[in-house]
């Protein structure tokens, strides 16, 4: 038989296990509820954004259709007027010549004077040449519209297919994963860059201490001191400021960078976060589409979107196939006009993307690098600031701590 005290001990332990399980479930239920709300909120905002963009795209197409239709109508109107005037002149001339010829043929053979008069009238009619000149020279320029609209339709169809494949994970920048692997074998390996092989200690020589500027923070960003930023659902009543973002959930560092090398680190705590730099003179009142980091030529960034890293500049993107890193290192070489993003783990650096002019070999084409080659150096005509974009409703970041023995002399203004 089992002793009562043993049963009581087993029962007590079992009940404690049940209570522990219930407590854990309480925590995970709260987290699950939060995730449900986050998904609903993100989906609602994404849906609204997509509907707005489709409406704007429809307006663009409607405007283009109106312009092309108007071009056809104007071409028809102007050219038809000339063509009809030419037709009327030809018909009148033919009728006049026919009448003069008939009059001449009706003259009696004995009436010489009357014959000479009618013959002279026919001769004068033949010599008249006042035909209106046709400025369009028989070229119907509005018939090129079909070709132009067809080309536009093909581009739109290809763009829709490419983006749809991208959304479904079938392609990256319009290429299948197999094509991407083949392309990677042809393109230079970023890890061959000497800066990609350095240890963290090398970069700490250029450690740059960043303080977040509360006068730039969007109202949906809560700051924790000068190092932490989190996106919130309820707007914060910040005072008005000419440097405050009003359409994008972004915040800048107060620090300016215009010479030498700078290195800083950012901890990705939660959500979708973009890290980059922006020109000092950028207008914080830009629209959402133009104001986001990397969607203009005044800024660039590395984005974590929950699945991969994506580099952005000038509205062009480059998807990066690398695992998630909790810490991102940013190395700005201002004089070299280069910006490199690293994944940092255990003092080891993994190069994620370097933004720098690098001309491709003949026969190669990379839209993102082509944009870098054409426009990236102009970004360095301005003083730059560290910039952060908290994209999702749960986004949260922290400016990473650097070695204490470095920071005392490296807080540059």
From TrEMBL:
<dbReference type="GO" id="GO:0008270">
    <property type="term" value="F:zinc ion binding"/>
</dbReference>
<dbReference type="InterPro" id="IPR003877">
    <property type="entry name" value="SPRY_dom"/>
</dbReference>
<dbReference type="Pfam" id="PF25600">
    <property type="entry name" value="TRIM_CC"/>
</dbReference>
<keyword id="KW-0862">Zinc</keyword>
<dbReference type="InterPro" id="IPR051051">
    <property type="entry name" value="E3_ubiq-ligase_TRIM/RNF"/>
</dbReference>
<dbReference type="InterPro" id="IPR013320">
    <property type="entry name" value="ConA-like_dom_sf"/>
</dbReference>
<dbReference type="InterPro" id="IPR043136">
    <property type="entry name" value="B30.2/SPRY_sf"/>
</dbReference>
<dbReference type="InterPro" id="IPR001870">
    <property type="entry name" value="B30.2/SPRY"/>
</dbReference>
<dbReference type="InterPro" id="IPR058030">
    <property type="entry name" value="TRIM8/14/16/25/29/45/65_CC"/>
</dbReference>
<dbReference type="InterPro" id="IPR003879">
    <property type="entry name" value="Butyrophylin_SPRY"/>
</dbReference>
<keyword id="KW-0479">Metal-binding</keyword>
<protein>
    <recommendedName>
        <fullName>B30.2/SPRY domain-containing protein</fullName>
    </recommendedName>
</protein>
<dbReference type="Pfam" id="PF00622">
    <property type="entry name" value="SPRY"/>
</dbReference>
<feature type="domain" description="B30.2/SPRY">
    <location>
        <begin position="189"/>
        <end position="388"/>
    </location>
</feature>
<keyword id="KW-0863">Zinc-finger</keyword>
